[in-house]
Automatic annotation (TrEMBL):
Xref: SUPFAM superfamilies: PLP-dependent transferases
Pfam families with a match to the protein in the record: Aminotran_5 (PF00266)
PROSITE patterns: AA_TRANSFER_CLASS_5 (PS00595)
Lineage: Bacteria, Pseudomonadati, Pseudomonadota, Alphaproteobacteria, Rhodospirillales
Superkingdom as given in the UniProt entry: Bacteria
Cofactor: pyridoxal 5'-phosphate
Species for this entry: Thalassobaculum fulvum
GO biological processes: glycine biosynthetic process, by transamination of glyoxylate
Domain Aminotransferase class V, first and last residues per copy: 31-338
Keyword list, A-Z: Aminotransferase, Pyridoxal phosphate, Transferase
Binding residue positions for substrate: 348
UniProt GO molecular function: alanine-glyoxylate transaminase activity; L-serine-pyruvate transaminase activity
Record protein name field: Serine--glyoxylate aminotransferase
Length: 397
């Protein structure tokens, strides 16, 4: 394949664009990670992560991808045979459930159509029926990256309290954190699971857990085997620093310090508003395409459509993978594919992280160009609809 000129537009839902300031922060020699200079960096990262996660709980960081933070959450609070109520959201609840089973947990899936948001009332009903208190934890993916649906974590937290049930609430914030509001303490979340490569705009490689007092208490009696991720070993150590079960990934911390500074400089509310604006522009473009028997929004609950990723359903008879393959090979825009049962049926437009209006418009214009070029039916005016909306919303900002 000949070289494609210009920058690739990275519109997959993670990893996301890494801002130059973050790249430059990593462009420095390694340092001794057992020195006060490094501890200060760690402490700043941890304290700023607390601001982003809106928690006074304990924040722990590992050298891992998001899968590591999933594993940390389950092994630190559960014992073999414990029951986890997994809210079905899509591919990521499915694979998180598989991981729980691999650790000998009993997984009860709260079945839910992938194109709809979880109804917190159903969580409450199930917990009320669990009079023996066998459910140890309720697990939910805040933003299901495979479907582009956001799930009501505040509502689920309230449902657990309303049921008067002792279950812990574990939330995967991997594709929501720093892109949409997440309020760990206010919403009653016991464990938040996060990763570095999406809203935090960092390279892949850091897993993050935040744990409430109740979760830390559960760790003391949880019997699942764990070592690398054992919170008792890695939570705040001497000098208020974090501990690692191994060499600290110092360059990723240089990146994280800068990334968190960027987020706080922009202001979290502005970051969320920007994501909401770019997501709405994307949805308006897709709705216009859909009017001509073209691609449509996969999600059916309008109010729960994600501000970090939009899943777009291809019209029947057209393969989403063939479509996005050409979008990439001919026009250098990377789109996400459909996962699991959505493979070939949807493509996903990631609009999270370090992204602005020209970048999303470039992506949407290229998708429209390729719909035309590949002879896929679609309504006209998708990009116009996005521009119309952005023109109005920018004026109001
Ligand atoms: N959970 C969600 C919601 C995700 O989007 C992903 C990855 O995209 C994961 C978990 C797994 O994270 P990782 O790929 O970093 O291990």
């Amino acid at each position: 394949m000949s070289r494609l000129a210009g920058r690739q537009f990275l519109n997959i839902p993670g990893p996301t664009n890494i801002p130059d300031r973050i790249l430059q922060a990593m462009h420095r020699p390694a340092l001794d990670f057992m020195t006060p200079e490094f501890w200060e960096i760690q402490v700043e990262c941890r304290d700023n992560l607390k601001k982003v996660m809106k928690t006074d709980g304990e924040v722990m960081i590992y050298a891992s991808s998001g899968h590591g933070s999933w594993e940390a959450a389950m092994t630190n609070i559960c014992s073999p045979g414990d029951t986890v109520l997994m809210c079905e959201t899509g591919r990521f609840s499915e694979s998180w459930a598989d991981m729980c089973k691999a650790f000998g947990l009993t997984v009860e899936v709260l079945a839910n159509p992938w194109d709809r948001a979880t109804d917190p009332n159903r969580v409450e009903e199930r917990l009320r029926a669990d009079t023996a208190g066998t459910i140890k934890a309720v697990a939910v993916v805040h933003n299901e990256t495979s479907t582009g649906m956001t799930h009501d974590v505040a509502g689920i937290g309230a449902a657990i309290r309303a049921a008067g049930h002792p279950a812990l609430l574990i939330v995967d914030t991997i594709s929501s954190l720093a892109s949409m509001d997440f309020r760990m303490d206010e919403w009653g979340v016991d464990v938040a699971v996060a990763g570095s490569q999406k809203g935090l705009m960092l390279p892949v490689g850091l897993g993050i857990s935040a744990a409430s007092e109740k979760a830390l208490e559960a760790t003391r009696t949880a019997k699942l085997p764990r070592k690398y991720y054992d919170w008792n070993e890695i939570k705040t150590g001497d000098h208020g620093r974090l501990r690692f079960a191994g060499t600290a990934p110092s360059h990723l911390f240089f990146a994280m310090r800068e990334g968190l500074r960027l987020l706080l400089e922009e202001g979290l509310d502005n970051v969320f508003a920007r994501h909401a604006r770019l997501a709405e522009a994307t949805r308006r473009a897709v709705r216009a395409w859909g009017r001509g028997n073209g691609p449509t929004l996969f999600g059916k609950d309008e109010a729960a459509l994600s501000n970090s990723v939009t899943a777009v359903q291809m019209p029947a008879g057209f393969d989403a993978n063939a479509f996005r393959g050409k979008v990439l090979s001919e026009t250098n825009v990377a789109l996400g594919g459909g996962l699991s049962r959505l493979n070939g049926k949807v493509f996903r437009i990631g609009h999270l992280g370090d992204l602005n209006e020209p970048m999303i418009l470039g992506c949407l214009a290229t998708v429209e160009l390729q719909l035309k070029r590949q002879g896929i039916p679609h309504g006209a005016g998708g990009v116009d609809a996005a521009i119309e909306y952005l023109a109005g919303s920018l004026a109001a900002s």
